Amino acid sequence: MRVSRKYVIAATVGALLSVTAVTGAEAVTQAPVHPQYQPEMIKALAASLGVSEQAATAQLERQDAQQARLASLSKRGIKADGAFFDRKGALTVNATDTGTAARIKAEGLNSQVPAHGQAALDRIKARLDTAAVKQAPTGVTAWSVDLASDTVTVEVNNASTPAARGFIKEAKAFGSAVRVVSGKQALSPMGVIYPGSRMTFDKDGGGFLCSVGYGAHDSSGKQYLVTAGHCVENLPVLSYNGTRFAKATGTRFAVGRRSVDMGVAAIDSGNSIATLVGTWGNGSDVAVNGSRRAASGAALCKSGQTTGWTCGKVNSYNASVTYTDQHGGPDTVVTGLGSSSVCTEGGDSGGAYISGNQGQGMTSGGPTGQQCAGGVNSRGSSYFQPLDDALSYYGLTLNTN
């Protein structure tokens, strides 16, 4: 179906799901009512925890309440050193000393004084990022701060390469603050060559496919698409079903260089990105109410044109990865990602991650050749560009429902 410029591209995070003509008056008077939590997110969480859907809903409510308390700590002058959800859904907040831990506990949150903590682990991780700039650590797939284990976790695919050996040696010099995990799959960005007509663009003489992400606006009201940077490398024109709807204006991704996988495209006049995340027939669409970052361990779902609606949880933030170019190009180190247990495949890049009603990010990449055969609860892993970081960098405000 061809798209009129006065139609809304009703898709977010990986899926242009429908096209609906909406006038300004209709948008106000006929706004749909959406549940607080999308049913398939409830089902996925219930299945992963082995509990009833009622218990899963209660956990999401506790999760939101705990994160609201966490957000209020700084207003009370209490400085946290990172936080994460444990397997039972309880939020643990790191403190730098016992006095601060006691103040955090008085606010109704679990607290601990870790051996390392986020600030120290971030410094170690930054040192490893610097090492990766000198030489891409081929064979090392990812390294990130994992607050639950209180380590910088280094994941390795092939420890026999000279670059991997050097990187691992430097990482192990930090002792117990670093954990090395072997047997991981090589990673690649999730954009693929495809002759279809989803969100398409030309690159290096071929047609490429990604998924649509979040809509946002600048201080003057100009509308933008926030997406994965590798989807808009070389600043192409973006199309939906063969019809142009946006022109890329910025990216921080470049093959073979240290990159950040965020980018933006200016939306053409008459088009807009809906403030609902499509679920590909798995219940009603999810209203986007904000971009508050979910803590590690929080429930997470994503919408993408290849795998549709898949769910899991946030693993960690401040992850760096080595992406292997499937077409023989140089490796690319990408920093600043979130990692998750959400399954993705090629073509999901740019698609939206959401936790509850809070937008979390856009698909960046995952294990090369990963297959998500189990539907919503597919086992797998992926990396996403945090939405809040992209909005901040480009000076944009998320469009909300």
Walkthrough of the structure:
The longest helix has 21 residues, at 53-73. 21% of the residues lie in helices and 34% in strands. Strands 10-12-11-15-16-17-14-13-26 form a nine-stranded antiparallel sheet, covered by helices on one side. A six-stranded antiparallel beta barrel has the order 20-21-22-25-24-23. Strand 15 (237-240) and strand 16 form a beta hairpin. The chain has seven helices and 26 strands. With 401 residues, it is α+β, with helices and mostly antiparallel strands. The radius of gyration is 21 Å and the shape is globular. The relative contact order is 0.17.
* Broad structural category: alpha+beta
The general outline is globular
- In terms of per-residue confidence, which ranges show pLDDT below 50 for 5 or more consecutive residues? 1-34, 190-198
Strand content: 25-35%
Number of helices: 7
Helical proportion, percent range = 10-25%
**Sheet of most strands:** 9 strands, antiparallel
N- and C-termini, Cα separation: 26 Å
Task: Please list the strands of the largest sheet in the order they lie side by side.
Answer: 10-12-11-15-16-17-14-13-26
Average per-residue pLDDT, rounded, comes to: 83
Instruction: Please tally the β strands and state the result.
Output: 26
Taking all Cα atoms into account, the compactness measure Rg is 21 Å
